[in-house]
Automatic annotation (TrEMBL):
It comes from Algoriphagus lacus. It comes from the Bacteria. The lineage of its organism: Bacteria, Pseudomonadati, Bacteroidota, Cytophagia, Cytophagales. This is Antitoxin component YwqK of the YwqJK toxin-antitoxin module.
């Protein structure tokens, strides 16, 4: 009897160890911090080709009148669409053009506008080609037949001049964009001749607004984060310099989720070594 009991306990102990190991392995796989290596194809790994090409704009102006009647914008054939909503006795109509061209959204731009064919609405997050189409070409938003906003889109990003009007169609504000970047944005370079970028600081209405990027001199991404109304918000991520072989998180710093949050102090959420191994994580 003792031998049988001993054998049973040994089997139970071994199976328990296996189950425990399997559980730990399962938890490790589901743990988003278990590795700092980032495999997302959408993560920008090198600096964008920039920006604000004045010669390109001149050529576009020459072609604009010629191609507008054919719904060709920036060399791309588009289709027209519209949405309509009734809110508290006011009807809001959006007129826009969109493209079915196969093109991924620019990972550097925070707000990418697209037409959701299922909901019949314009969205700025969660785009995929299976769900809808990127806006591309002229856009107008009207309230009770009065234009209150107009501008151009370029593959889902605001482009050229955008204007805002009051309910009497009197101009209230005007902004200039280049493929999603506000033209007030500040760009610093390691080398002005080769245009190797050091930092891109998005600026709108004289305040930081949008996605921030800092690059190593080899143009690999070093830091990403977001500004809202001049304040750092959300999770800011620093990356190791791996000479463009892969993207490995170095540490994440948690800032306030909403700008101007009182009594919030930023803190380090997690850190990884250069191989992507987790070395610190704050317990919430």
């Amino acid at each position: 009897m003792n031998r049988r009991l001993s054998a049973f306990l040994i089997v139970l102990l071994i199976s328990g160890k296996i189950t425990f190991a399997q559980k730990n392995e399962s938890e490790k796989k589901s743990d988003p911090d278990s590795t700092g290596v980032v495999s997302s194809a959408l993560l920008p790994s090198v600096a964008p080709l920039l920006l604000f090409d004045e010669e390109k704009e001149k050529e576009e102006k020459k072609e604009k009148k010629k191609k507008a009647r054919k719904n060709i914008w920036f060399g791309i054939k588009t289709q027209k669409g519209y949405t309509r909503r009734d809110i508290r006795g006011q009807y809001i109509v959006e007129y826009f053009n969109y493209t079915d061209a196969e093109r991924n959204p620019d990972p550097y731009i925070r707000d990418v506008y697209w037409y959701d064919t299922k909901d019949k609405s314009i969205k700025t997050q969660g785009f995929s080609r299976e769900l809808g189409y990127l806006l591309h070409g002229p856009y107008e938003r009207m309230i009770n037949e009065t234009v209150v906003e107009s501008g151009m889109f370029y593959y889902g990003t605001k482009h050229k001049t955008w204007m805002l009007f009051d309910d009497k169609n009197v101009l209230q504000d005007k902004n200039h964009f280049s493929e999603g970047w506000p033209k007030e944005s500040r760009i610093t370079y390691y080398n002005t001749t080769s245009k190797s970028i050091e930092k891109i600081i998005p600026v709108q209405y004289s305040l930081e607004e949008g996605n921030y990027f800092h690059f190593y001199e080899n143009q690999q991404i070093a830091v990403t984060g977001e500004y809202q109304f001049g304040e750092k918000v959300g999770l800011w991520t620093e990356y190791w310099d791996t000479k463009n072989t892969k993207a490995v998180r170095k540490r994440e710093i948690q800032y306030q989720e909403e700008p101007y949050t009182k009594n919030f102090r930023p803190y380090i959420r997690a850190e990884w070594d250069k191989e992507g191994n987790l070395i610190y994580r704050r317990d919430n």
